Amino acid sequence: MRAWASPTIPDAPSRALGPAPALKLHDTSSGELRTTSPGDIARIYVCGITPYDATHLGHCATYTTFDLAIRAWRAAGHDVRYVQNVTDVDDPLLERARETGEDWEALAERETELFRQDMAALGVIPPDVFAGAIESIPIIVELIEELRTQGAVYDVEGDLYYATTADQRFGDVSGWSREQMLSVFADRGGDPDRPGKRDPLDALVWQRQRDGEPGWESPFGRGRPGWHVECAAIARRSLGTSFDVQGGGSDLIFPHHEMSAGHAQAAEPGTAFAQTYTHQGMVGFEGHKMSKSRGNLVLVSRLRAEGVDPSAIRLALNSQHYRTDWEWTASLLDDATKRLATWRDAVARDGHDRAATLEAARAVRAALAEDLDAPQALEIVDGWATRPSGAEVASSPTESLRPGDLMVAVIQASLGVDVRP
Fold first, then answer.
1. In angstroms, rounded to a whole number, what is the distance separating the alpha carbons of residues 57 and 41?
2. What is the gyration radius of the CA atoms in the chain, in angstroms?
3. Is the dihedral of CA 338, 344, 347, 349 positive or negative?
4. C-alpha span between 158 and 215 (Å, rounded)
5. pLDDT, tens digit, for every residue of 147-167?
6. What's the CA gap between 33 and 274, in Å, rounded?
7. CB contact at 8 A, 9 and 413
8. What is the distance between the alpha carbons of residues 376 and 26, in angstroms, rounded to a whole number?
9. In angstroms, rounded to a whole number, what is the distance separating the alpha carbons of residues 56 and 373?
10. Distance CA 44, CA 84 (A)
11. Is the dihedral of CA 315, 10, 363, 371 positive or negative?
12. pTM over 0.90
């Protein structure tokens, strides 16, 4: 599947400042702040969209967050391999198509294309692998066959289920009790009450074709894959085992990330799915979590159509720490628009002190390396931007950028925000 065009990422900060600090991220599974330690290539999987509606700010908060992580890794000298899926066949998509009378494939392609446009406008680095569920069915089938070999899959009236008991570490990702899991499983795509299941928490990996629904041939009969096994298969094939970071919204901790890890670990006993599990907090609007099912959405495409600068949208998102739940308000966007104007005025202005600029630039990268503290990074740029001007110190032969241009490059490379005058 095609992704979107990559934004420009200046390399001037690395030349002027040297490598950034190692990236630390909060790990949901341990509850601790961990220093990531990738090899030459940092490997990250971020769960993608189910394209039955337009991209809202809750989605964008997730993708801009992990975009910051990718940028922080690059600043620290790592190459990055980034993988993201698109669940282009699933119950919510088919249900929306039935409600609207639209062809489900056309709906999926239209909303996926709108997602691409929103991500490009926000300056999000595209994934190296942008894989749809449909195109990934062959590797999903391979994983299910591995699970069958391990005795981790059983049949219920032609549907195949993964037995959670097959992974001895089941529960380690979320740290949840069984009671907590059961309290949300049905609301998050599970079917705990289905007769014939060995355990209410067992997860569907292959659904036989129903009347009026699409299906694909497989050794298990014609049907389509479950959600969790989709991400497990794509991640394993594209990144290998024990990759550096599994990312997504906090609503994916259970069951999705727990189950995906379980599928992969049951297929290859003794391996770890990911080293670190990092999660974006929920974005609310009008008193509730922003969600397609509730309909309380603020759409990026609508804001862009109204003439809002995408860099202001991104600054508004970055003003909240990724691990917190927060509420979108018009004042956040107003503040971000003013901040953007202040920064642009500052970088266009002569008279910046070189030493102060270098100090601020290093501090921005250090803040992002410390669990993606974007709010702190923004405050550092605010302080630099409002510092009184003086006589600008001339660049030395080894320092080709004027201080204002260096800060433009740092902001663009580290925060993904375009502040060019």
1. 30
2. 23
3. negative
4. 13
5. 999 999 999 999 999 999 999
6. 15
7. yes
8. 16
9. 22
10. 9
11. positive
12. yes
Residue range 217-226, pLDDT digits in tens: 999 999 999 9
> Can you say whether residue 2 is alpha, beta or left, with left for phi > 0 and alpha for psi between -120 and 50 degrees?
beta
d(CA 188, CA 91): 12
The stretch 75-100 carries a mean pLDDT of 96
Q: 155 pairs with which residues across the strands?
A: 160
- Tens digits of residue pLDDT in 184-203: 999 999 999 999 999 999 99
What are the distances in angstroms from CA 405 to CA 140, 375, 410?
Answer: 48, 22, 9
Residue 328, Ramachandran bin (φ over 0: left; ψ between -120 and 50: alpha; else beta): beta
Give per-residue burial for 310-346: e unless 16+ CB within 10 Å, then b.
Answer: bbbbbbbbbbbebbeebebeeebbeebbebbeebbeb
Query: Do the beta carbons of residue 222 and residue 208 sit within 8 Å?
Result: yes
d(CA 117, CA 351) in angstroms, rounded, equals 37
What tens digit of pLDDT does each residue of 21-69 get? 999 999 999 999 999 999 889 999 999 999 998 889 999 999 999 999 9
Task: Kindly state the helix (H) or strand (E) to which residue 246 belongs, with its residue range.
Answer: strand 243-249
What are 345's two structure tokens? 């005025």
Whose tokens are 């770890």? That residue is 272
